[in-house]
């Protein structure tokens, strides 16, 4: 209890830390909390520079602290191909030392030369060799001494190695699918059928609107003429002019003269702006957009849309054959021949998922990678979702984009999130993903706030374009063989929220579940999530299941806000403490020790080596994503240090030290200390290594 008239222990927005752990800056000594205070002093150091003539007081300039940024980030230099070992020599198997590229190969073929340039090994044991019995990276492995012989042969542990063992990573794109996507040879009959019907309906609506506009325009001119006469009787000359005007009007309707044609085009353009839809990429519609979003190739759409994939269409039977398949002899088909590849499922026929009451790990760009999702699954997450993938990039077969769809075997309820602004690309993407990837649901991103996405008409901007939003969702639900979900915000602008108006329509469009982040695009993280509005949205959307998202960091937060929601989605709370899923299920606060937290990071590093590789490139990729995660992890305040439990997500701690050195290091908000933690797990960083967080996580300053 505080005495009357005494000063409050903490200032507003500051976490209540026990006094014995708070560091007083004026009384601190060098080395008391490692490098933190020295770096703090160097950041606020004042640099002076002389003016041109040297007279007068020198101006002062405060050096700006570098914080997280997404644009123009410093990037690590790529490893030259000549410094990488050719994959044909990677495993050290003499029988496979033939390179199919011969002299044109850009990689190194001299094992001795490669080993001379290779950095020293990180540790004595290789995680992949210990787990699988054989390291797939051979000589290039940064732990290679544990499984390589002196004559550059890759050892195999016969007791562990099983060549027929199925991999734990699912949804690896095949080379043939990637090539067919790039050449636009992938069969998408459901999408083509839907887009043809969609274009036909849109043209019918436009024709009706044009006829209505013409009728309104004609009656308007007639009324104008009568008002101009001022109610006087019309003489013979006036009657002749009116008759002449009527004849011209009829000629304009029948022959579509130049002036009338311009009027029609103007009305059509105006209607397109009102609709706000792009359709399947017609030239007239693209003129509405200031730029071609997502760099799509645009062809003029005639009455019958062109076949974008160059397939031959049999009008009589409705079957499509690729140019390659037409030249090959037909092969007999064994078993029953079904039409499930062309029949569009009705909503009641589609696979059902019971989302209610489950803990949902939100799709998180950059940090929501496969190793992180494995960690969260171990702590009790029920639903996981991949990082946001752009629909056009998936349709182009980009390797980096398809890597975001990879799924681990432990993810028993897994979805992928796609983002796009166009009906055609999103519809085709939904069919490709549901056909060629093992996913339980497809999530539509209607919540991404970044300008790069919203300026193209995708992400959160779809909330202000209801017609386009509806067309995209209807197209995806029509062609996907799995449920389609939506993740959105409260709205685009602050206090001009419209999620409660859109959500009741989603079930009619075929959506299986919706998640609402309790902030608008303008707010970002400047305000707390509005759970009252989320509850209002859930009531308006009933019986559609609605998940709420925002600021959940403890089981008290969960129990306070879970009422009225179908479930809770966890985002930053899982990044700050991934064991939050265990806390929510067991209804307790876990005072986790620094050694336990280091074990979590060690597991993450091992999962990263499995996912990205144990060669130099894989190790540095693992380090990069580990550092991105550490930019959130340091915000966790140990329960044993708090005066008041629980920690809330918007409270910032004063400068404090932990119960041991490692806990103090993990609480540091400096990138250099995060790099030290990564070196404990992945060895020393390269000499030219630099890191700046992608998210502005280290702008979360301690006072």
TrEMBL record:
Similarity comment: Belongs to the dus family. Dus3 subfamily.
Biological processes annotated in GO: mRNA processing
Keywords: Flavoprotein, FMN, Metal-binding, mRNA processing, NAD, NADP, Oxidoreductase, Repeat, tRNA processing, Zinc, Zinc-finger
Domain of life: Eukaryota
Domain C3H1-type: 85-112, 120-150
Stated name of the protein: tRNA-dihydrouridine(47) synthase [NAD(P)(+)]
Enzyme class label: oxidoreductase
Function statement: Catalyzes the synthesis of dihydrouridine, a modified base, in various RNAs, such as tRNAs, mRNAs and some long non-coding RNAs (lncRNAs). Mainly modifies the uridine in position 47 (U47) in the D-loop of most cytoplasmic tRNAs. Also able to mediate the formation of dihydrouridine in some mRNAs, thereby regulating their translation.
Compositionally biased spans, kind Basic and acidic residues: 21-39, 218-259, 284-323
A single MF term (Gene Ontology): RNA binding
Keyword NADP in record: yes
EC number: 1.3.1.-
Record field: transmembrane: none
Annotated stretches, region: Disordered: 1-80, 209-343
Reactions listed under catalytic activity: 5,6-dihydrouridine(47) in tRNA + NADP(+) = uridine(47) in tRNA + NADPH + H(+); 5,6-dihydrouridine(47) in tRNA + NAD(+) = uridine(47) in tRNA + NADH + H(+); a 5,6-dihydrouridine in mRNA + NADP(+) = a uridine in mRNA + NADPH + H(+); a 5,6-dihydrouridine in mRNA + NAD(+) = a uridine in mRNA + NADH + H(+)
Biased composition (Basic residues): 60-76
PANTHER family according to UniProt: TRNA-DIHYDROURIDINE(47) SYNTHASE [NAD(P)(+)]-LIKE
Names of the cofactor(s): FMN
Zinc finger annotations (C3H1-type) as residue ranges: 85-112, 120-150
This protein's record includes keyword Zinc: yes
InterPro entries in the record: Aldolase_TIM, DUS-like_FMN-bd, tRNA_hU_synthase_CS, Znf_CCCH
